[in-house]
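User: Just a sanity check before I run the rest of the batch. Below are the structure tokens for the first item. I only need the designed sequence back.
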């Protein structure tokens, strides 16, 4: 059977029939004719767009229109017919208008007591229809001479997400429903179940325990300040320190270099020893103690040289489902592929917004590393500002937290603060801002708390 499918002409592979439940569609429309208030009662779970029969769907819309001026009672077929005829005359109705006899016959099919059951049948059939259409689309993509694994698979995954429509109305809540949970949170200290520790005591304290799901965290710095190192520190603290599934998307370093740097930071092996193949016996002894924990950690690394939002979204979706992904670190924003836009600023703004939506949709924390413009170098005091975020103010707008990395010794080698680094929390949505001072141990490829040796 599958062999016939692949050998058949493309136009013969289209679904032979739609799995619509026509009887359920008739009953659900008849029910709202009999009791128009049902439209509001099932609005959170039912979308009339799932009604596949055109005249039935438009009959539903006509009832919805008429009930706006209806004080009580059912909507008779004569009134519906007049509404549909008026729409037809004005060019608003794009399908043939049903006759009064059809509408009268439909009216007799009502079973209002079973509305929710029939609505579920219509929805289930509609989802099955979209799934069949998605499968057909996937076959066409796979057989196309222009098939591109990255773009087409990512697009197919995005289409699959659309098979089941999410209902925004189903997520509505009253404040009274939410207050109970607020009171529970007020007396419940955060844990790693609802926070992702950053690895820095003062930063965790400022952020009330660490990062939370749905947040977009931007780490901005000028080149050679150590933003990649800080991103790796966040990933190490989460995955190795607390067993939190984490993904690093590195557009700048190879996975081999990342592995060396993480081993250097965790085992305190000078990075240049690893690069030169000159690790000492003491280095290897420390490595032996740390390697089991490092190897067992749920830290995933990808070093593809190209990364677009569809590809990233597909990878995140897969890891959320299979590994429980909670933290994503992208190094770095300006190297990501962007879609077509009028300006580079608009393209980056679209990318920034997409990353925020990604965090919110999957309930993960997204840490995006970002290069700053030359603003700090043009000022007497070199400390960066949030306004230095390069190419788009939308990055600042979308971010929940903005951390600017600054090291005085990067500008002044003999600085009295040599070896220190400031994490300037310039934006913290819903919380305080502050400057957290840490120690930069470049030879170990890491930042650490000042009290740590």
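Assistant: Here's the designed sequence for the first item:
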């Amino acid at each position: 059977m599958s062999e016939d499918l692949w050998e058949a002409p493309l136009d013969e592979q289209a679904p032979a029939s739609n799995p619509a439940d026509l009887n359920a569609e008739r009953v659900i429309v008849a029910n709202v004719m009999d009791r128009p208030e049902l439209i509001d009662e099932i609005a959170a779970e039912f979308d009339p767009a799932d009604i596949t029969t055109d005249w039935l769907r438009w009959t539903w819309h006509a009832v919805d229109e008429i009930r706006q001026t209806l004080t009580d009672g059912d909507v008779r077929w004569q009134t519906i017919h007049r509404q549909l005829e008026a729409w037809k005359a004005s060019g608003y109705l794009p399908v043939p208008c049903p006759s009064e006899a059809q509408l009268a016959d439909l009216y007799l099919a009502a079973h209002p007591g079973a509305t929710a059951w029939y609505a579920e049948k219509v929805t289930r059939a509609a989802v099955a229809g979209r799934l069949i259409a998605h499968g057909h689309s996937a076959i066409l993509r796979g057989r196309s001479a222009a098939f591109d694994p990255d773009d087409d698979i990512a697009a197919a995954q995005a289409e699959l997400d659309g098979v089941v429509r999410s209902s925004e109305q189903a997520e509505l809540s009253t404040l009274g429903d939410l207050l109970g949970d607020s009171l529970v949170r007020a007396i419940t200290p955060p844990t790693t179940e609802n926070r992702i520790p950053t690895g820095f005591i003062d930063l965790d304290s400022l952020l009330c325990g660490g990062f939370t799901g749905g947040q977009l965290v931007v780490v901005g710095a000028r080149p050679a300040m150590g933003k990649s190192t800080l991103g790796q520190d966040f990933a190490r603290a989460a995955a190795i320190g607390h067993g939190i599934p984490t993904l690093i998307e590195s557009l700048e370093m190879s996975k081999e270099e990342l592995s060396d740097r993480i081993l250097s930071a965790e085992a305190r092996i000078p990075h240049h020893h690893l690069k030169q193949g000159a690790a000492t016996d003491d280095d290897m002894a420390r490595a032996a103690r740390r390697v089991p924990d490092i190897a067992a950690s749920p830290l995933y690394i990808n070093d593809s040289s190209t990364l677009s939002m569809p590809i990233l979204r597909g990878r995140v979706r897969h890891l959320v489902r299979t590994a429980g992904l909670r933290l994503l670190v992208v190094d770095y924003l300006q190297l990501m592929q962007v879609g077509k836009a009028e300006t580079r600023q608009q393209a980056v703004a679209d990318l920034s917004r997409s990353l925020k939506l990604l965090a919110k949709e999957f309930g993960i924390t997204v840490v995006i590393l970002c290069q700053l413009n030359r603003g700090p170098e043009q000022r007497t005091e070199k400390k960066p500002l949030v306004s230095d975020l390069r190419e788009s103010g939308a990055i600042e707008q979308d971010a929940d937290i903005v951390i600017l990395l600054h090291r005085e010794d990067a500008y002044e080698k003999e600085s009295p603060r040599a070896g220190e680094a400031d994490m300037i929390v310039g934006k913290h949505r819903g919380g305080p801002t502050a400057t957290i001072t840490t120690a930069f141990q470049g030879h170990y490829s890491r930042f650490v708390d000042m009290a740590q040796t």
